[in-house]
Recover the amino acids of this structure.
């Protein structure tokens, strides 16, 4: 069958104002964007407003949004309860710079739901929270080395900005010194034997992982793998740490640790706990977290933590409103059902057409991988993915008003604002591409 001829003029013709804005942006921002993931060819569209499950660009085009603010908007854009909370808090002040009641109330909400959250400390982003968590682990254990998994994304903190995607021996950025990463041991995901071989003889401060490999393609960890890591940490004194910046409050109120039933010692949170505003948090066992208590510890026994915008009132007010909705509305039932609908519908299309693609995911998360390799348990096969075809399909979806996160490995999330009609449109749009390209 003749290959689909994507209309190269369609996107450009519909987004003239975004093209002009991009030219302006390139004069003031490197690459014309504030984050590399927000760039795609030939240029990104610029959003005028967001609402529910849609984005509207400055040219008036609308897109069904599976990017979901980097998966933070579990309720959708401008959810009324969150919007009202932001407005009400702004009238009282958006950042106080000193202690306030919201940080106590919000911590109590985290403590109520996250099984391991005996104490909580806030940061301004998931990246910051991961940085503080690593420092905490090293302080508590008096050990320097950490284990980080292939394909895991924990933000650009030097010690963790390594082996994000194949080839794992290639640095993802300049400015990363050997010294900053010499104590990071890269280990294989979903491979307990491989993990044990690489850490043999090491004394680790912590084992840090995403219980669902997110930027690596929404690949869940096997429960047996998580339990094996738990057992290893119990034997050796290393801390098991989950990066639940995305999965926290997305895979249920208790996150991935609640869903999988394997508890870490320390959990890193972000995104949803701020209702879509900037936030990060570290929480965990009291005896570990109290190392951040300067009234009890000092010097090398104390893990410094702080930041001007830690426990920002506006973020906490929005987060509390979002958590309150998650507690009282059947959000998870809705988004998990739509997630299964999306994954099964897309897989059926690929299988019927013998098309070299498949989906992964869990709950409200999904990803499309252009490879025949099965089963997908890690990111090691990424080097053989047909990334050109992935970019082509990304463009096709965009042309038809569907925005999915990242052209090279399309992955996204579903919000409470998405409907069955949205998912049907996603599936039908994918099917159109597959039919012409099979």
């Amino acid at each position: 069958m003749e290959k689909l001829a994507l209309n190269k003029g369609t996107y450009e013709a519909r987004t003239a104002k975004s093209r002009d804005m991009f030219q302006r942006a390139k004069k003031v921002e490197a690459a014309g964007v504030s984050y590399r993931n927000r760039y795609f060819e030939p240029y990104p569209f610029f959003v005028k407003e967001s609402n529910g499950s849609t984005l509207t660009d400055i040219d008036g085009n609308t897109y069904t949004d599976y990017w979901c603010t980097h998966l933070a908007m579990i309720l959708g854009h401008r959810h009324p309860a969150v919007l009202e909370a932001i407005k009400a808090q702004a009238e009282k002040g958006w950042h106080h710079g000193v202690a306030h009641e919201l940080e106590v109330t919000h911590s109590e909400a985290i403590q109520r739901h996250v099984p391991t959250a005996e104490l909580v400390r806030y940061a301004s982003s998931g990246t910051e929270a991961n940085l503080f968590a690593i420092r905490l682990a090293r302080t508590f254990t008096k050990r320097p080395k950490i284990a980080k998994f292939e394909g895991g994304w924990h933000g650009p903190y030097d010690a963790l900005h390594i082996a994000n995607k194949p080839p794992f021996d290639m640095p993802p950025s300049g400015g990363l010194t050997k010294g900053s990463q010499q104590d990071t041991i890269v280990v294989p995901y979903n491979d307990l034997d491989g993990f044990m071989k690489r850490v043999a003889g090491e004394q680790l401060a912590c084992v840090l992982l995403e219980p669902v490999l997110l930027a690596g393609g929404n690949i869940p960890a096997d429960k047996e793998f998580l339990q094996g890591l738990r057992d290893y940490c119990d034997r050796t004194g290393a801390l098991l740490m989950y990066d639940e910046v995305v999965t926290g409050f997305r895979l249920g109120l208790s996150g991935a640790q609640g869903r999988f039933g394997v508890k870490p010692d320390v959990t890193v949170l972000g995104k949803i706990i701020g209702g879509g505003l900037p936030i990060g948090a570290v929480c965990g066992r009291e005896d570990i977290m109290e190392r951040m208590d300067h009234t009890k510890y000092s010097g090398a026994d104390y893990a410094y933590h702080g930041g001007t915008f830690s426990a920002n009132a506006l973020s906490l007010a929005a987060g509390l409103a979002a958590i309150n909705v998650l507690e009282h509305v059947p959000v998870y039932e809705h988004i998990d059902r739509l997630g299964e609908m999306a994954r099964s519908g897309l897989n059926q299309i690929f299988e019927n057409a013998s098309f070299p693609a498949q989906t992964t995911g869990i709950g409200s998360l999904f990803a499309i991988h252009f490879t025949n390799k099965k089963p997908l348990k890690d990111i090691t096969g990424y080097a053989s993915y047909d990334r050109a075809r992935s970019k082509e399909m990304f463009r096709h979806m965009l042309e038809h008003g569907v925005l999915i996160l990242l052209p090279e490995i399309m992955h996204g999330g579903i919000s409470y604002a998405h409907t069955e009609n949205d998912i049907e449109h996603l599936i039908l749009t994918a099917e159109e591409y597959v039919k012409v390209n099979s």
